[in-house]
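User: Hey, my collaborator sent me this sequence without any context and asked if I could get a structure. I don't really work with proteins. Can you help?
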Amino acid sequence: MIEIKNISKTFHQKKQSFKALDKISLSIEKGDIVGIIGFSGAGKSTLIRTVNLLERPDEGEIIINGKDFTQLKSRELAKERKKIGMIFQHFNLLSSRTVSENVALPLELDGVNKTAIQKKVSELLKIVGLEDKAGDYPKSLSGGQKQRVAIARALANDPYLLLCDEATSALDPATTLSILQLLRDINQRLGITILLITHEMEVIRTVCNHVAVIDNGKLITKGTLNEIISQKDHPIIKQFLNSGAMNMPQELNKKLQKEPQDGLFPLVEVEVNEEISVEQLLSIVYDKYKIPYKLLKADVEYLGEANFGKLLLQLQGEQEENQQAIYYFNQNKIQNRVRGYA
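Assistant: No problem. I've predicted the 3D structure and written it out in C-alpha cell form, which is a compact way to encode the shape of the chain:
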C-alpha cells in the first residue's frame, strides 16, 4: 500500500548542511503496524513527515495507493492528506474547545453538517473511551486522556493511515501501555494501517508487527521483530535491546538509598544475553557464592534457546560476599550496575 522509495532529505542552515535522510526505501502493507525506531537525531521524525509531505523530500518517491505524492498538485495533495491521520507527542489540542469540539474540528473544516458531526464525534469518543468527557476542556484531562482526544480527532475523516510521531513519549509507562493497546484495537477494529516512530524498544515489542531501524539518516535494517532481534550483534540494535534502566517497583523506589548502610542490601540490575542465561546467572549467585537473593523483577525474552533482557536482584549476603559476586560479573563482562540499597 505504501512504498517509500529512495527518499533523501538535506537541511541547510547558514553555511552548514545536514543530511537527515539518505536514500531510504521501505514498504508497508495495508493493515500493518510498522514501527520506525532510532535514537534522537536519527531522522525518524523527518521520515514520517515525508509520508504525507509535511516535509518534502529532495529526491525519491512516496507512493500510496498507486499515487506518487511527490507529483501531486497542491489541491490534490490536500485532499489525500485528509485520509492520513496524524498524532503527536504533545497532543496539540485547542484549550478553548471542549473534547467534543476538538474532535469535531476536522469535520467542521471539511463542511460536514452538524447532525453528522455529532453522530461521528459520539462514535469516536466511544472508541477511545471518553464518552463521559465530551463536555470537558483539555485542562481538566490527564495526559493519557488528552492523547485519546488527539487520536479521536485523527480518526475523524476515516483515515486509511495513521502516523504516530512519538505519540507516547510524554506519558508514564502504564498510560503508554493503554494508548498502545488502543492503537492496536483501532488497527484491528477499523483496519487502519499504522506507522509509528519511537526511541523505545518496549513500544515496538508491545504493538508493532514489523520494524525499521534507522541511524544517521540511513536504514540499518527492517523486518519482523524476531528478525530484528536475531541481528542482536549489530551495535545499533544491541543498544536498543539493552537500552534504558528497568523501572523500579514503586514501593521499593521510595525507600531506596544511594549509599550502603547497615541492614541494607544492594539492588543489582544485571543483563542476560546469549552468553549467559537466567539460570546460569542465578546459579553463580546462589551455588558459587552461596548468596541468598530476591529476584525482584525480570524483563527477559527468549529467541530460540537464547535469552536477552535484564534482572533486578537484591543480593542478601554479607557485604563481602555481595561484592565478590559483583566483582565476578565485572571480570566476566556481565553487564551490571547497582541501583541502590534497600
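In plain terms: The first helix runs from residue 44 to 51. You can pass these C-alpha cells on to your collaborator as they are.
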